[in-house]
Amino acid sequence: MRELRLALRFARRELRGGFQGFRIFFLCLLLGSAAISGVESLSDAFLTGLQDQGQVLLGGDVSVNLVHRMATPKELAFLDGQGRVSRTVSMRAMAYARDNQARQLVELKAVDGRWPLFGAPSLTPTQDLRDVIACEDDGVCGVAAEQSLLDRLHVTRGDLIKLGNATFRIMAVLDSEPDRISTGFTLGPQLLVSTRGLPATGLVTPESLVDYTYRIALNNVGKDSAQSRAAISTFRARAQSTFPDAGWNIRDRTDAAPGIKRFVEQLTMFLTLVGLVALGVGGVGAGQAILAFLDRKRADIAILKTLGASGGFVFLVFFLQVMLVAVLATMLGAGLGAALPFATVWIYGSRLPVPPSFGLYPVPLLLSLAFGLLSAVAFAVPPLSRARTVPPASLFRDLVAPQRAEGQNFYRAISAAAAIGIATLTLLVAPSPVFAAEFLAGAIASLALLRLLAEAMRRSIAALPRSRSPLLRLALTNLVRPGAATGGVVTALGLGLTLLATVTLLDATINTQVTSALPARAPSFFFVDIQPGETANFDRVIGSFSGASDYKRTPMIRGRITALNGVPSAEARVAPDSKWALNGDRGITYAAMPPPGTIVTDGKWWPANYQGPTLISLDQAVAHGTGLKIGDSMTLNVLGRSFDGRIANLRKVDFTTGGQNFVLVLSPGLIDKAPHAYLATVRVTSAQENAMYMAVTDQFPNISTVRVKDAIQQVQDLLSSLAQGVSAASLVTILAGMLVLAGAIAAGARARLYDATILKILGATRARIALVYVIEYGVLGLATGAIALLAGTLAAWVIADSILDVPLTFDLKAVLVTVVGGGAATLFFGLLGALGALRGRPARRLRTA
Question: What distance, in Å, lies between the first and last C-alpha atoms of the chain?
């Protein structure tokens, strides 16, 4: 204990002079800790906001959703007995302007007089929604529409529009809805009507794809969260036991927006991992900074050992000094990150989909501190251990003739334990441990690859024939001489550039698929809700266009997968990438013969005249994720009726075609007897595309017509936003790499100063010395960029080939961003660090040497 107090006193005295030698180490830890704390704090703020505002976002304490059918009187009586009930009816429809030829697909939502149970819609001008959607004496009802619909139909408030067989008047602009976030992805502007005015449209038929949602404000639910959870749990149990085969999709306010919740969790995990990579990059710089620090402290270490200080005491002094800096850096970084939710609201305000809940969240702060301190231990112990084990005399020649330090296993074990702690903590807090493990493995592999490539580059430069140009020879020699930071710079800065190159290449690949490959394969139109009595006329209209091709009309009904081999879907063990198939309703079709292009990978298709129990053809990827195989059973619920089917075969479903892709194809005999509509797709030449759009929407106003190019544009905008966000996140790693670069240059500043002094004495001008630095740092930067481009291309190819299953698109932008960007950054910091050497006067340096 006495030795510890004495070591702590020495460490504190060393730090009185400031953070000289630890600035880069401090900034790297600060950056990584702030990134982790900020991301985790913002995530907790959003998730808490979702939780606190669950009633408003869902529109009730619980919601019950049915597809194709409304609740029966008995079911409705049960719901009414649980609390106040609000009913909404949602579907897609075509809206037509009365005074021009404009028409637009809309998300139609009919609401009753109780909607919304919580919150209120925002309307322009401000008025009561019931007055807006009320019906006039002439039978014309009002609607509230988003401004984008008014723009596309070229109408204004007060104009008439047509929905199906009915005429409506636009009474207000719909700015926002309290429960809009819970509806998920939409293809068109939102349009609100009353449930009283909806029947006149004629759009609702037994075959139509309609969602009926019943939102309930439960009785006896107070503000106490435990009481609320108990009431919700009781409702779920009663609903399941009373109507076990109703096919209800029940959600509650604790999971009001599951899609956004999953997105926030996954994005948080990715950004946290990026923050860990930034800490890893900073660790490379930390090792260099500590070695440079020990180089300056050689005399002090030698004196301490000469005076009888043990190697353990010397190690303890400098370890405590490093950890004091680390504690201060991580605490400051954690504090800065905790302010991110406040800054986000201040910057983005009302544009946020869910206002975050302000507060100080302790878990992100503790995570940030734990990751930061463990990283400091993992990267600081190995270089510090040299001060303990190397004899005093060898410290003076350690730069050019490093001594092999003995007894390093104990310190390697400490460093390894800290690294294992980081990995374990990462896997424990990650929503998807598999993805986190793969990401960490990829980052470690990238670091190893970059280190190998850096060593290969150094050896290649050393093996080059000596140039006749003294400037070039000197510049290249600087890259391979003892103590050169070439390997560290390539590894640290290269990792950030590798991540940026990977994102850039994947963005180019996905954009190519969305903008070129997908439109080349995808149909021009999707037609939804084709009624059985309209099929003949619809086929005739499509057939009248000479430019139409690949026309396909398929029966479709929606249903839910409720059990796998008798195990309820909610309890089944399913891989994360296949859970989507069990969440909500899926499109189902039936076929006696395999549809054209079907690729059966396992099992056999049923005979064309098969009339037995229901057989199922299942997507092979979903089968793999759910653990199902040939002969297993699956329980489906369609129109409130549950039935079992046996898996007869597995198919390869290619969702990248953009066409009709059904996870479930059933044998006829039962499913074909249920009321259902048809889905159709067709390709048409660009010259006839608008004519077909007008013809179908004119003759079949009840059919929802989706322009695929409009849907592709929405997907492209979404992917572009995600790519920009990931690229911005990768800048954290690049910034850490630049800090390492700056630290490496600063660590070599003393050697640069002596080199410049000798060169000036020998007659070299400042311009020629500067040219040496330009060549040296230019080569280092361009090589770093080229190595990062190589590693990034390899990573992007692996992801595109094994995960996305698409060919990689090589983009020139990636070359410019990584190679040129890396070269420019290295050159800038290199010349900035060399200014002192260029400006120094030889006489002054000789007098102080």
Answer: 41
The pLDDT tens digits for 27-44 are: 778 877 888 888 788 778
Cis peptide before 121 (omega within 30 of 0): no
Output the pLDDT for position 284.
67
Residue 570: pLDDT band with limits 50, 70, 90: confident
Angle between helices 258-296 and 311-338 (to 10 degrees): 150
CB-CB contact of 640 with 672 (8 Å): no
pLDDT in tens, 299-313: 777 777 777 777 777
* Helix 258-296 vs helix 486-512: crossing angle, to nearest 10: 160
State yes or no: pLDDT of 642 exceeds 90. no
Residue 692: burial class (beta carbons within 10 Å; 0-12, 13-18, 19+): buried
Q: What is the DSSP string of 599-652?
A: -EEEE-PPPTT--SS-EEEEEHHHHHHHT--TT-EEEEEETTEEEEEEEEEEE-
Distance (Å, rounded) from C-alpha 486 to C-alpha 607? 68
Q: Between residues 652 and 274, which one has the greater pLDDT?
A: 652
Q: pLDDT at position 414, please? A: 86
Contact criterion met (CB below 8 Å) for 247 and 562 = yes
DSSP string, 777-842: HHHHHHHHHHHHHHHHHHHHHHHIIIII-S-----HHHHIIIIIHHHHHHHHHHHHHHHHHHH--H
Residue 119 tokens read as 């919150």
Residue 647: left if φ>0, alpha if ψ -120 to 50, beta else—which one? Answer: beta
Asked, as a colleague might, if the bond just before 356 is cis with ω within 30 of 0, I would say no
Instruction: Kindly list the distances between the CA atom of residue 813 and the CA atoms of 376, 518, 820, 821, in Å, as whole numbers in the listed order.
Output: 36, 22, 10, 11
Residue 8 burial class via C-beta count within 10 angstroms: exposed 0-12, middle 13-18, buried 19 and up = middle
Nearest partner of 361 among 348, 374, 342, judged by Cα = 342
Tokens 């391979």 locate to: 480
Cβ count within 10 A of residue 276? 24
pLDDT tens for residues 382-423? Answer: 877 776 665 665 555 554 555 555 556 778 888 888 888 888
Query: How are beta strands 664-666 and 600-603 bridged, if at all?
Result: unpaired
Q: Which residues contact 828 (CB under 8 A, 6 or more apart)?
A: none
The angle that helices 821-839 and 749-761 make with each other, rounded to 10 degrees, is 60
CA dihedral 192, 194, 200, 205 (to 10 degrees): 80
Amino acid in the structure at residue 187: L
Evaluate whether 737 touches 495 at the Cβ level (below 8 Å). Answer: yes
- For residue 380, the model assigns a pLDDT of 80
Are 778 and 816 in contact, with CB atoms under 8 Å apart? no
Q: Look at residues 384, 410, 412, 414 and name the one whose alpha carbon lies nearest to residue 322.
A: 384
What is the pTM (predicted TM-score) of this model?
Answer: 0.72
DSSP structural state of residue 135? B
Task: Give the pLDDT confidence score for residue 170 in this predicted structure.
Answer: 93
The arithmetic mean of pLDDT across residues 785-799, rounded, is 82
pLDDT of residue 616 exceeding 90, the answer is yes
Contacts of 706 (CB under 8 A, 6+ apart): 92, 105, 187, 525, 526, 527, 528
Residue reference for tokens 């734990």 = 370
Q: Sign of the C-alpha dihedral, residues 685, 691, 693, 699?
A: negative
HSE-CB at 685 with a 13 A cutoff on CA atoms is 5
The angle at the Cα of 403, spanning 397 to 406, to the nearest 5 degrees, equals 145
CA distances (Å), 516 to each of 511, 804, 807, in order? 8, 16, 13
Among all chains, which residue has been given the structure tokens 């060919």? 807
Mean local confidence (pLDDT), 721-726? 62
Which residue in the block uniquely carries the two structure tokens 């390997």?
487
Q: 158: burial class by Cβ within 10 Å (0-12, 13-18, 19+)?
A: exposed
User: Is residue 555 left, alpha or beta, with left meaning phi > 0 and alpha meaning psi from -120 to 50?
Assistant: beta
